[in-house]
Structure formats: C-alpha cells, structure tokens
Known about the structure:
The chain is mainly beta.
Amino acid sequence: FRSYSNQGLYTNPDSVKLLLNAVTWASKSGAFVIPAPNVTTNVTFFINATDHSGNSNTSALFTYLADGILPSIVNVSFPGQAAINDDVVITTEVSDNQEISSVFLNFSIGGAYMLQQMQPSNSYNTTVDLSQATGNLTFSIIVFDVANNRNETGLFQGEVFKPSINFTPAEFNITGFIGD
C-alpha cells in the first residue's frame, strides 16, 4: 500500500517544482510526476514523508533536466539506383535542442536489417558496400539525443542492379584477291 498527495505544481520558464507531501511509505517505491512530452525543463522536487506515528522528514531539493523534445532528421540524400560493387553514400542532417548522441543507418539489401553507425562531418554520412548484392536497398535513419530520445525516418528505397554488358562485334572488311 502506498499513498501520496500532490500539494502543488508550480511552473516558471526555468523549472517545474513538484512538491510531494504526505507520502506514506509501506513499500520501497515512490511516485513522481514528470513534465509533459515535448517539453524540456528543469524539474525540482523534494519529498516530505510522514510515517504512521506522525514522524516526518523533508528531503533536500533534487533537480534534473527533463528533455522531451525529439531530435530532427532532414535532408536525407542517396542515389536512387546503384550497380553491384558500387559504394553508396547516404547522408542526412540531424539536430537537437540539447546534443546528438548517435545516428544510425538501419538498412536491408533483400534480407535482414543491419545497423551501421553514421559518422559526423558537415552532416552525418555512411557508405554502404554493395558488393555482390542485388535487389532493393531499403533503409531508415535513426537518431538518439543525450536524453535517449529517439526519432526515425520512414523507409527509403533504392534499386541495386547488375550492370549490363553490351557487346558490339567489331566490323571489318577484307579486300584483296583470291587466287590469280
């Protein structure tokens, strides 16, 4: 059994203060309220606990940064077609209100999906090796920020094909005399 009452929720541009009062502890877990999604703010709270005998104690203030804003993914570029043994470079631009943690290419060439980490430069990029692969290249971009918020694009598709070899026989003329 556990009970709590929320004595008040106060907001200002810099923080959300959450006061939990009259917490009765019969178990070792507690209840906390976090900010709404799509909000990045400092959360400050304390706990005032009272036992069944009326003894009470108030904790120190605790503060943490709650980041509810997803990183964004824009300007994905890739060739729509590529031949076997080509290297395909896929690039994208990502941004976040705090900091990007990692960016991955989630791709398949006619089979199971694989994750490949994309490297930062002016944008994030990676090279896909198409040696001996044919079929559809299907991929998405996955990005994480330092608060572990995750965003993913929809699926992109391109075609990997075997190049055709066109053989045109050489033409030649023979001139001369046969016999005398």
